[in-house]
Amino acid sequence: GYHRRLFEDASKYNAREQVSGLLLLCSSHILHVVESCSSTIHLIIRDLASLQDQGPSALLQEIKVLVVAHNIPARLFADWYVTVATSPVTCPQDSAQSQPTEETVAECLALLLRVAACMPKPAEDDSEDATDSPHALTPELLIPAETISRLCKAEECASPGDFLRMYLSPLQPALDSETVWPVPSHLSA
């Protein structure tokens, strides 16, 4: 219900820009890929930040923003899909823990590219609303549950609130207080 409302609000927010992507529902995790304009993505991240501000009683916990990219030449998903992970996928504990976060994110993105390739194209999808009929993914396309859990706990990945603070803060380069800049002779009096 929460994600359906979020999707509907995002679609209404900027009606000129379609919202597409994937909502992957696992037993204990949710992975949400959103493709839209920057203002719509900002709206969704603000909503997730307000949800996370509710503390331990919030519907979703350990929310992380993994990647925000601009000027993407083509979308991965033709529509907005809800996909159910029917069986938990596991990976060897030591391989998941020893891998740097950047590599783990890249691995997840590679799997998402494979998922996108398996999603029905508009002509193949006979339902009027792809969000009404969840698609099931085969286990080899699923991101291991341990990987998602590790990314949710990774300090390198920003929470929605942290992402917004970085996004909204102006760049302020630090000035070296020891540096003395010479005043041009025509300006000194």
UniProtKB/TrEMBL annotation:
It holds the Pfam family TEX47. Coiled coil: none annotated. Transmembrane segments: none annotated. This is TEX47 protein. The gene is Tex47.
